[in-house]
Specification:
0% strand; mainly alpha; rod-shaped; 4 helices; 78 residues
Length: 78
């Protein structure tokens, strides 16, 4: 789809032909540019996946730290 858009086909024409929204086609083209290191600054798919993974890991580590702090407080009390 991106290649068709780059070859000069219009997003609206492609949307009608393939049954997807022109907005989606444009977003795919923008994402392909970012993945190739072109276009405006933004995250690539790989970077977005890594960010999501790191956010989950960060949340897990915060929960573990809170649990360890509670355990340490209990040990100090006794």
């Amino acid at each position: 789809m991106v290649e068709l858009l780059r070859s000069g086909r219009g997003a609206n024409d492609l949307a009608r032909e393939f049954g997807v929204s022109s907005w989606s086609i444009r977003r795919w083209a923008e994402q392909a540019e970012r993945a190739a290191g072109q276009g405006y600054v933004g995250l690539t798919s790989t970077e977005r996946e890594e960010l999501s993974r790191l956010r989950l890991e960060n949340q897990r580590l915060k929960e573990e730290r809170a649990l360890l702090a509670k355990a340490a407080a209990l040990l100090i009390e006794n």
